[in-house]
Design a protein that fits this description.
With 311 residues, this protein is an alpha/beta fold. It contains nine helices and 14 strands. Helices cover 31% and strands 27% of the residues.
Length: 311
């Protein structure tokens, strides 16, 4: 899979079978769409391509209160790479100029001239262009490519969507969210230097940088962490850490079981297995430590039972 930033015409790429969207989280609906795209591309002897945007258009239009993002751009690429269904990813910068492009201008400039689209697969609710005036009828009228709309994908009777995944994660319903995603929800990031409070209270933590201020879930969780040293079990806090911090920045702090070493600068992938509780503010550090001890014990018990089930 190749990723292209900027005007793709400078890369002299061939025509493609294209789909368009943010693909936040790469959930089951996205996966089914990409499978369909691959099938149609093979029938036409075309490479598959995805057009996506950075930032998310909803983030651009709602900067004061953007929606939670399920996956960073890097995590999105990793999920798409694992599927093995996309040959090219085109990342377009979503800015004022792009947002003001007319629907017809988008078709003529982006789809036809820049991406050389020969087949286009879109979601059944896809709209585009300034004022969201572009729709299936406009795309279908273009003689340069064939256009098809993908019907909604249902998972346990519910339409798979990034919005629904966000709702389930916010509610702490990881089982439902993971069913919609088709895998365990995860976040990756580099380990950064923090307050180093954890090591003074017997629970050293890896502080993972969050590129976006608003995560899709909050609380204390049982986790597994993919690190250069292998997959490790642990307990994680994702939130504002109100007992020891008064900043508005969200923090992902992971205490790894049976591990000692330096992780600074390394990229970890945190897999969220079970929510233990919501985040709370405690009156003093001793009360917080006692709660962390209970959380760690609960997480170890859950991981042990999980290992037995998988044995």
């Amino acid at each position: 899979m190749q990723v292209f930033l900027g005007d793709p015409r400078r890369f002299a790429l061939p025509g493609c079978a294209l789909t368009i969207g943010n693909f936040d989280g790469v959930h089951q609906g996205h996966r089914r769409m990409l499978e369909r795209l691959r099938s149609e591309a093979r029938a036409r002897a075309l490479p598959t391509a995805l057009l996506t945007f950075e930032p998310h258009p909803r983030e651009f239009f709602a900067r004061a209160n953007p929606p939670a993002r399920l996956s960073t751009l890097r995590d999105k690429f990793a999920l798409l790479e694992e599927l093995g269904l996309i040959d090219y990813v085109f990342v377009y910068r979503f800015n004022h100029s792009f947002s003001n492009m007319s629907a017809q201008g988008f078709v003529d400039q982006v789809l036809v001239r820049e991406l050389k689209t020969r087949y286009l697969l879109i979601g059944d609710d896809f709209q585009f262009g300034s004022g969201r005036k572009g729709d299936f009828e406009l795309l279908a009228s273009c003689p340069h490519f064939a256009t098809e709309a993908m019907p909604s994908v249902l998972v346990k009777g519910e339409r798979a969507s990034s919005t629904l995944v966000r709702e389930r994660l916010a509610a702490g319903d990881l089982d439902s969210a993971n069913a919609l995603l088709g895998g365990v929800y995860r976040i990756s990031g580099k380990v950064m230097h923090g307050q180093k409070l954890g090591r003074t209270i017997g629970f050293p933590t890896a502080n993972i940088h969050l590129p976006h201020l608003k995560p899709a879930l909050k609380g204390v969780f049982v986790v597994e962490v993919d690190a250069p040293q292998g997959r490790l079990g642990g307990v994680a806090s994702l939130g504002l850490n109100p007992t020891v911090s008064d900043t508005p920045d969200y923090k992902l702090e992971v205490h790894l079981f049976d591990f000692s070493g330096d992780l600074y600068g390394q990229r970890l992938t945190v897999r969220f297995l079970k929510k233990l509780r919501d985040e709370e503010r405690y009156d003093d550090l001793a009360t917080l430590v006692a709660q962390i001890e209970r959380d760690a014990a609960s997480a170890k018990t859950y991981l042990t039972s999980l290992q037995r089930e998988q044995a």
